[in-house]
Design a protein that fits this description.
This is Potassium/proton antiporter, CPA1 family. The protein has about 625 residues and is α+β, with helices and mostly antiparallel strands. It has 24 helices and 8 strands. It folds into 3 domains: about 400 residues, Na+/H+ antiporter like fold (Up-down Bundle); about 70 residues, 2-Layer Sandwich (Alpha-Beta Plaits), CATH 3.30.70; about 80 residues, Uridine Diphospho-n-acetylenolpyruvylglucosamine Reductase, domain 3, CATH 3.30.465.10. Strands 1-4-2-3 form a 4-stranded antiparallel sheet. Strand 6 and strand 7 form a beta hairpin. It is globular and about 70 Å long. It starts with a helix and ends in a 9-residue tail after the last helix.
């Protein structure tokens, strides 16, 4: 008996260690980390080392708790500024996008499988959501510098679309298990009312729970070691209570994390570090358990159909859903295509695929196996190619000017202050003698391994490490003081143009000097006002505005989003290339129209049409 406890502990911890070490491979080669975790679980399972594990209920329980921890951490780490910038398109993708993807996938599944309509839409619901862990990791590990709006849209979507897929999956499982004939109208009404109830209760509970977490943390004098455990436990209590009253516990914990993470409560830095670690552990355990549950020997019979469904999801269902959802939001076609491509499926889809088995559905195991293969294909095809696709679509931008080293520390009694460490960059304003604001006086300077008082260090030199105690809401001015300015190196000059223009100059000046094509009423605007008008009222780093023979590029903005540096290119970038296998709805429409025009010209000219193949 006791030997069994030691053996289980040994095997479990060995698998976790193997998964943790595999992350080094993923960071080195940019591999999808989830794929490695699942692979370790598969190798240890029934068809690998032979560890027997076939408990769907236990797998679902472990996965649900782990997912609740991950979603709370996702909300806690989402800044309100990012949410304001990308919330409308991201939430459109997380709601309507999930429903459209599930519907399109369900229709195709019904056409090529033996599943009935309800089972096909159930399968579509299972694979409809993207995986937050995979998206966050690959955008980070790939070191991809893309526009903030695109990155934030992807991250917020992947962190918030799970509850919709969970609701749809459970609803279809209950309908199929009931076995009673349901009228389409009654079904639609029931789904809508159930969705509104679960989402409404989840959001309300999350807002209350987040405020309670903030109140407890600020008022209770808990030991610093107990505080992170207390917070994550309260989040899990909120998850359980919300689910018990028929709300979405996943929406509740995500909303609570969002409220708590943006409240400015004390010990936020400590909580973030703890939650990063516990979130990684939750991901590893969830992925390993799901991989352990799978039986690859059962995949062979359904492999062709599952691969066909996977390719349909990647190249048709996801792009069509994304294109329709992003139509109102002024995304460029290349950006829409990239968002379509970064729709990785992951652990949530495999976790939801357990629901049909737990519900006792006749084809439950087949649905699980298909969903598992869909996830594997998604990670293999999309996970390895995010970087090349971004470069192919012309979305890579130069890294933004910033500090070479910044460490957030928290000192006792400093609820709204931070101790920041900056490495002085050669050529930065402070290295050239620039003054540091009074509100950010250095506390310590480390030079060549020696600790110096600021008054003894004198003028700051390149490679000095400077510690500064500031408010946690310090402006980005401090970052720019310690960093090199955006240089005019060859790659930056190619992107930002060879000239800079003052954003407060009139647009009529660049029209007269460079032949910029202006619309009626734009001549009296400043360059910054012109760019804002053309960009829909919001500008961010690396945004571009084409004005005929020239192009204006946003080189930098201040803390309030006001343009304070503009580049001018006399050789505007050509239209970013599209990918033949990944066309947006607009590109498909344009190509069909062009094809019809060509056919019309041939018909009118009397040229014979080519024979049908």
């Amino acid at each position: 008996m006791f030997e069994g406890v030691y053996l289980v502990t040994l095997i479990g911890t060995a698998m976790v260690l193997a998964a943790a070490f595999s992350s080094l491979i993923a960071f080195r080669f940019g591999a999808p980390l989830l794929l490695l975790f699942l692979g370790i679980g598969l190798l240890a399972g029934q068809d690998g080392l032979g560890i027997p594990f076939d408990n769907a209920a236990a797998s679902y329980f472990i996965g649900s708790i782990a997912l609740a921890v991950i979603l709370f951490d996702s909300g806690f780490g989402t800044a309100l500024s990012s949410l304001r910038l990308a919330a409308p398109p991201a939430l459109s993708l997380a709601t309507l996008g999930v429903i459209l993807t599930a519907g399109l996938f369900g229709v195709f599944a019904f056409a090529i499988t033996d599943l009935n309509w309800l089972e096909s839409f159930l399968l579509g619901s299972i694979v409809a959501s993207t995986d937050a862990a995979a998206v966050f990791f690959l955008l980070r590990a790939g070191n991809l510098h893309i526009r903030e709006r695109v990155r934030n849209t992807l991250e917020i979507e992947s962190g918030s679309n799970d509850p919709i897929a969970i609701f749809l999956t459970i609803a279809f499982v209950e309908l199929i298990a009931a076995g009673a004939a349901v009228q389409p109208g009654e079904l639609a009404i029931g789904v809508v009312l159930g969705f509104l109830r679960e989402m409404g209760v989840g959001v309300f509970a999350g807002l209350i729970g987040g405020r309670l977490i903030v109140m407890f943390v600020n008022r209770l004098k808990l030991d610093p070691g107990l505080l992170p455990i207390f917070v994550i436990t309260v989040a899990l209590v909120l998850f359980g209570i919300t689910g018990a009253v028929h709300g979405s516990g996943f929406v509740a914990v995500y909303t609570a994390g969002l409220v708590a993470g943006n409240s400015g409560m004390r010990s936020t830095a400590t909580l973030k570090r703890f939650q990063d670690g516990i979130s990684w552990l939750a991901q590893i355990i969830m992925f390993l358990v799901l991989g352990l549950f799978a039986t690859p020997s059962q995949f062979i019979s359904i492999l062709p159909v599952a691969i066909a469904l996977s390719l349909f999801l990647i190249f048709i269902a996801r792009p069509v859903a994304v294109s329709l959802c992003l139509l109102p939001f002024r995304f460029a076609r290349a950006e829409t295509a990239f968002i379509s491509w970064v729709g990785l499926r992951g652990a949530v889809s495999i976790l939801l695929a357990l629901a049909p088995i737990i519900g006792g559905l006749e084809n439950g195991r087949e649905l699980f196996n298909i969903a598992f293969i869909v996830v594997l294909v998604s990670l293999l095809v999309q996970g390895w190619t995010i970087g090349p696709v971004a470069r192919r679509l012309g979305l890579i931008i130069p890294p933004r000017s910033g500090p070479l080293d910044k460490v957030e520390l928290e000192l006792p009694g400093s609820a709204h202050h931070e101790l920041l460490a900056y490495r002085v960059a050669a050529g930065s304003p402070v290295a050239r003698g620039g003054r540091i604001p009074r509100w950010a006086r250095p506390s310590l300077v480390i030079r060549e391994g020696r600790s110096l008082k600021p008054q003894d260090a004198g003028r700051l030199l390149a490679d000095d490490l400077v510690y500064i105690f500031v408010s946690d809401r310090y402006p980005r001015l401090l970052d720019r003081l310690f960093a090199t300015k955006v240089s005019l190196a060859a790659d930056d000059e190619e992107f930002f143009g060879a000239f800079t223009v003052e954003p407060d100059h009139l647009a009529s000046e660049i029209s007269a000097a460079y032949g910029a094509e202006l619309r009626e009423g734009e001549a009296d605007l400043t360059i910054a006002q012109l760019m804002l008008a053309r960009l829909g009222g919001h500008a961010e780093y690396a945004d571009r505005v084409l004005l005929g023979p020239i192009e204006l590029i946003v080189r930098d903005t201040d803390d309030k989003g006001v343009i304070d540096s503009v580049g001018l290119s006399l050789e505007p970038q050509e239209l970013a290339p599209s990918m033949p296998l990944l066309l947006t709805a607009g590109e498909i429409k344009d190509r069909i129209a062009a094809f019809l025009r060509r056919r019309g010209v041939k018909a009118s000219s009397g040229e014979p049409s080519p024979p049908a193949s």
